[in-house]
Design goal:
With 75 residues, the protein is an all-alpha fold. 56% of the residues lie in helices and 0% in strands. The longest helix has 21 residues. The radius of gyration is 13 Å and the shape is globular.
Length: 75
Amino acid sequence: MYGHGPSLEEFSATTPLTVGTPEQVVERTLGFADYAGDYQRQLFLMDHAGLPLDVVLEQIEILGREVVPGRRTGS
């Protein structure tokens, strides 16, 4: 990350960082309940590290269209 420190894979294995397809994000997010219990809020940071606005907006669209509905149904 940022040119030094753990790799993306190492960092995501030890933190809630989630990177992947919408299906992978849903699966990982649903897995958080295994150690956090039934929680009511999920925060998503979309504009980290200077991502261009068009990329951030695309990611927000995918989040709302594909990830959040899957998170609610567990599908």
